[in-house]
Amino acid sequence: MQFAEPELDELYRELILDHYRHPRNKGTLDNATSKAEGFNPLCGDEINVEVELEGDIIKDVAFSGRGCSISQASGSMMTAAIKGRKVADAIALLGDFKRMMTDPEVEPGEDLGDLEAFQGVAKFPVRVKCATLAWHVLEDGLESKS
Amino acid sequence: MFDVDTLRKDFPILSRQVHGQPLVYLDNAATTQKPRQVIDSLVHYYENYNANIHRGLHKLAEEATEAYEGSRAKVARFIKSPEGARSVIFTRNCTESLNLVANAWGRKFLNAGDEIVLSVLEHHSNLVPWQLIAKEKGAVLKFVDIDGEGRLRVDQLEQLIGPRTKIVSLVHASNVLGINPVRYAAELAHRQGAIMVVDGAQSVPNMPVDVGDLGCDFLAFSGHKMAGPTGIGVLWGKPDILEAMDPFLGGGEMISRVLLEESTWNELPWKYEAGTPNIADGIALGAAVDYLEGIGMENVRAHEKSLAAYAIDRMSALPEVTIYGPKDPEERVGVVAFNYGDIHPHDLSQVLDQRGIAIRAGHHCAQPLMRRLDCVATARASFYVYNTFAEIDKLVEALEGAGRFFDPDAAAAARMS
């Protein structure tokens, strides 16, 4: 389904809506090595992120929470993007993602993959926080661990 | 009654387009739009008689003082202040008014163990100031709950207001749910020797309010929610209590005689207006009062009630919609908080915005209430004198469109059942 308004199609890309309707890695982990939660007081979005580290590898990751489609899809796509990767890679990705969200002029690097779907969100300043919330929570969790 | 189409011409902003669509402004509980008369009053002040008030013996200062104090008199008349303008203190907004009471009354008269009775549906502005002073004084906060329909539980109100109660502070009309029995709460408070504070942010702009009839000791409200400018609010208080309290802020204007070590205070209401006040917006608030009185507050109320009734009626017909608060429009102002299936209010609001429709999405500065209602947030459509039934039709149509977009399966399933 498409909107009559092209701006909305840019914001709500099919990939984002797919992750919103069918979130990946949603829930909690039995063997989490770090947990963090974040809250967006503007709209009440809540995201919890649990990570299970094995050495410097993110062996498993899950998110839970309630919020808008952008925040929930971002949690889903973030976990899909970092699962099985090195912590250092995840942190680099986090930096690239945040740059893409805060500076729409910057062309995202090739390694952002599916996450490029969020590029349209950068044009809606009030929604940027929704898209970056999960990443901030991940950052908190990884930092508190190290 | 008045003609809405004619009245809309007074509001320049209503003719603008948003994303190529005519603006449908349904976020009036956050702030209302301003009529030409109010905007003109601001410009007229700055272009013709801008001067500081209550000082300077020149013509401009005289005119500015007269207009500012004239506005205070209009506000006093608007809420039928029994002791006139000396009860009317100009503040920045309703929040500052409530902070003034919490600080000035609380600091002087609250003691450890005293109780402050509030409710779970208070706006943060009628919650956080009390948390701060309660912590400072060792006072205890008590909260009246709501029932299944979102009405304040009167049985709890009766139970919680007791001999230790020093302050009862309640919102008159909720910015999410309904209208509260503040007159009865004032009776209960006074029986126990407590003071009654009323947050009138959503009632004064939307219905006739007779402060003497309410029986409260303080009434707080904002100018910008009643067609007036931002940056000006009102605290109405009973003069004997205002006399008994110490000032909130110190500085110029609020003093009588100043010595190096101590000072004496100006008379009411200026005792509570330190420094150069917001002269322009204070004067323009008077223009807003004139405007509303020209329509008649009973007509404002009647129009908003019929809009709310129509909105509740049309939205209730959508199976996905949950409406919060009492369904009887008699029990609410023009505020309809709702959710649409599982779609987050932010997403709804975003889609509506692209169609020129402005609603509020979020926790409405009432996070404890959201938790009490067991939702993260709600969407909210709120109406004012210039809204029309056709705008509500557009809202409903846009909601259905959003529903089909975000949750096609659920929308279909709801329609089947």
Describe this structure in words.
The complex is a heterodimer of chains A (146) and B (417). Chain A has 146 residues and is of the alpha+beta class. Chain A has a single domain, classed as Sufe protein. Chain: A (Alpha-Beta Complex), CATH 3.90.1010. Helices cover 45% and strands 18% of the residues of chain A. Chain A has a three-stranded antiparallel sheet with strand order 1-2-3, with helices on one face. The mean pLDDT of chain A is 88. With 417 residues, chain B is of the alpha/beta class. Chain B has two domains: 4-30 and 296-416, Aspartate Aminotransferase, domain 1 (Alpha-Beta Complex); 38-294, Type I PLP-dependent aspartate aminotransferase-like (Major domain) (Aspartate Aminotransferase, domain 2), CATH 3.40.640.10. Chain B is built from 15 helices and 17 strands. In chain B, the strands form five sheets. A seven-stranded mixed sheet of chain B has the order 4-10-9-8-7-5-6, with helices on both faces. A four-stranded antiparallel sheet of chain B has the order 13-14-17-16, covered by helices on one side. Chain B has a two-stranded antiparallel sheet with strand order 1-2. In chain B, strand 1 and strand 2 form a beta hairpin. In chain B, helix 2 (36-48) packs antiparallel against helix 10 (279-295). At the A-B interface, helix 1, helix 2 and helix 3 of A face helix 12 and helix 14 of B.
